[in-house]
Amino acid sequence: MTATLKRVLLGEQGLLVIFVLAFAVVSLTVPNFLSERNILGLLQSVVTIGIVACTMMFCLASRDFDLSVGSIVAFAGMVAVMVSNSTGSIPLGLLAALLAGTLVGLVNGVVIAKLHINALITTLATMQIVRGLALLASDGRAVGINDPTFYSLALSRFLGIPTPVWIMAALFVVFAFVLNRTVFGRNTLAIGGNPEASRLAGVDVDWSRIWIFALQGLVCAVAGILLASRITSGQPNAATGLELSVISACVLGGVSLAGGRASMSGVIVGVMILGIAENVMNLLNIQAFYQYLVRGSILLLAVLLDNLRTRALVRR
Amino acid sequence: MAFLEFSDISKTYPGVKALSSVSFGVRKGSVHGLMGENGAGKSTLIRLLSGDQRADEGEIRIDGNTQAYASTRDAFDAGVVVVHQELQLVPELSVAENLRLGRFPARGGVVGFRALFEEVGRVLKEIGIDVDPRARVSSLSIGERQMIEIAKAVMIDARVLALDEPTSSLSSRESEVLFRLIDRLRQAGKVIIYVSHRLDEIFRLCDGCTVLRDGRLAAHHETMEVVTRDRLVSEMVGREIADIWGWRPRESGAVRLSVQGLHGPRVPEPASFEARAGEILGFFGLVGAGRSELMRLVYGADQPNGGSVALDGAPLALGSPRRSIRAGLVLCPEDRKADGIVQGRSVGENVVIASRRHYSPLGVINPRREASVADRFIEALRIRTPSRRQDIVNLSGGNQQKVILARWLSEPGINVLIVDEPTRGIDVGAKAEIYDILYRLAEQGVAIVVVSSELPEVMGISDRILVMCERRIAAEFKRGEFTEGVLLAAALPDRQTPQTAAQRA
Fold it and tell me: Tag placement on chain B: N or C end, fewer CB within 10 Å?
């Protein structure tokens, strides 16, 4: 009995099993959890984390780290709103935001890959620089959206489901494909497994790393646009601490911080576990401060589980 | 009466019976060789002895007492120390600190350095290791570090020492110093289990030896008196291997690889050489002679300062492994673990990592094609793995080496293959298989450059040998011209200047 339990929990799909169990328990015990309204709200609440987690997964899988995501999200949101307001064209604003995000990511990537500066330090620096730019742009104030079409972006629905959730789902599919079925994705995992051996096997390690960070910037900009649209303004202080939530979600989903191991399904589960925990506590009217305790505890438990699983694998 | 006894030891891993009822004993004050092909069960046995894992059945007895230890710590306390290939020293600390790590002589938390250095100095002197206890470990040669690791065992008064391939990264001179240390430990009454693939070392050192094959005891020799080399080899592989080199004559064609005046950070003097189609060109030299460094420049793993490389007459862009591969020049690196295998990835991925680009239009991979390529090479090279999905770190050294070879064989149109230490840490049976792969490639017109520190190997498989000494190419010999004597003479520096001594250290 315990042996079977162990095998199920420590197996490939252990996290998924736990997730399904937790979901079942929560559905049965927490009133209103399964209502359509609540589930849609839940999905909408994880859009930012979910979108950014897609590329953070690549970052971690290649043994890198990106702390600047929260700042890029806020900065891109500001750019989108301010450029839209001043030019009167929303497409132009969105394009500017996407470019700005990609540019920051590109800078991260070039500094890390070509100048060989540690990713933690580099992105710690850009995190502050970009946050500073966002604050400077509006003198620290929130900038309201002039054209209501912009915030209908987040409010619009397709088949009854909010557009941002569709976008998140689409990105999940795209990045699952990129990770598993493209040379770029496989090389990312190989770099995480052993960068030097990958280089000697002909993998263009520098180029891959630059791309990973540039993609991360682009995807953060997407998240930033959607966030600005949802809160109907560009907020220079938006998404503070996002980097930690996103990394938590990835680690929860079995992405190894030592690189070389990642799966999209795991990351999705990780994102959902964090979202459900928060949602359930809201439904149960638990004071928001407790959420920090719960999130931290979940993360610790997940890492413990992962540790046990790795050891079980090594024994084999 | 045996001091260390293995009695009916069995150990099963999921899917593999690693050891089945292995029993033998080792006398006090003797060096006992443990031999066998990769996967024969040596590592498992050592792991059980070190307390890292527990046997499913059977017991280990030391001095008549059954050992029931459950961790390496327990084994340590029982006086059993295993010195692994990967050394466990802290490079930033001094020799003395390393030797007393966790047990510093201290008063009120303050380390008594004088006492520490004195004590360690005395012990080192006693066992004949000529190293300053104040020296930082990072300043020592690999050979010296190996001795320090053994000294660590002596410091805790170990009764049983297991040495796992201790000479695999040592020069012959360093090895000799190590052997003298082992001789001294034998006289001091220790039991030493000596794991090695090198037969000459077994004959030089061991009082007796045990051969494992497929997890079973294949032979146990109390003394080495009547044992011959050939007998040991056949016991290890379970069949007769007449000539493990199996060299066969072959035609060599036009020049494929031409290196002119290549020099770089660790190869100061410009080096030039050529390799022809169908030729196996050996590179011999002492450890530190600059062979691997030169090969890394040729391949583009390191950026050269000057010189040129041409493949079939066409100049090669230097400093990029990617471009070298695309031009048909590939390298199997010396350090498999650091530069060869991609840990955490499957055997299959490790095979196709470079060649998949040929059938991945727009960067989208073709899993079915990858699987068939991987399976084909796993079969063709007889790579022993449960499946292509197995994580490569779980394979033995020989099989990992074959995966790296498969990586390049799956690349269509390679012209030049450089293999650095093709069989380091690999057993006899797999060695013969790897040589055979090299011969077949040569017969297909590939130019092959083999770097090796093992004289018999270089002599056994090369058509021509270049000898490097002190970072330059010192001599050239054709097959028929070379003997152990002339090769060694060319590899040894003329005079022992202080500078060369420092370089080797």
Answer: N
When comparing pLDDT for B293 and B170, which is higher?
B293
Q: Reading across the β-sheet that carries B160-164, which strands appear in turn?
A: B80-83, B160-164, B191-195, B30-35, B208-213, B216-221
Cβ pair B321:A199 closer than 8 A: yes
Nearest partner of A201 among B146, B105, B345, judged by Cα = B345
pLDDT at A12: 62
Minimal Cα–Cα distance from B219 to chain A, Å? 28
A14 contacts A263 by C-beta, under 8 angstroms: no
Give the chain B residue whose CA is nearest to the CA of A194. Answer: B342
What is residue A312's predicted lDDT score, i.e. its pLDDT? 66
Q: Evaluate whether residue A129 is within a structural domain.
A: yes
Residue B274 is predicted with a pLDDT of: 95
**Residue A79 lies inside a defined structural domain of this protein:** yes
Residue percentage of chain B with pLDDT more than 90 = 35
- Considering the segment(s) B4-237 as one domain, its CATH architecture is 3-Layer(aba) Sandwich (3.40)
pLDDT of B158-209, one tens digit each?
889 999 888 776 777 778 888 888 998 898 888 999 998 778 888 889 999 9
Q: Is B21 helix (H, G, I), strand (E, B) or coil?
A: strand
Mean pLDDT over the full length of chain B = 85
So where are chain B's domains?
4-237, 254-328+415-505, 340-412
Chain A closest CA to B386's CA: distance in Å? Answer: 12
Spell out the alpha helix ranges (H) of B329-366. 347-352
Give yes or no for B71 touching A (CB within 8 A): no
CA dist B418 and B201 (Å) reads 28
CATH code of A172's domain: 1.10.3470
User: By the 8 A CB rule, do A238 and A77 touch?
Assistant: yes
Mean pLDDT for A267-285 is 89
The contacts of residue A196 (CB under 8 Å, 6+ apart) are B338, B339
Tell me the shortest Cα–Cα distance from A79 to chain B, in angstroms. Answer: 33
Question: Cβ contact (<8 Å) for B357 and A200?
Answer: no
pLDDT score of A64: 92
The CA-based dihedral angle spanning residues B356, B359, B362, B363, taken in that order and rounded to the nearest 10 degrees: -20
The torsion angles phi and psi of B172, rounded to 5 degrees, stand at -65, -30
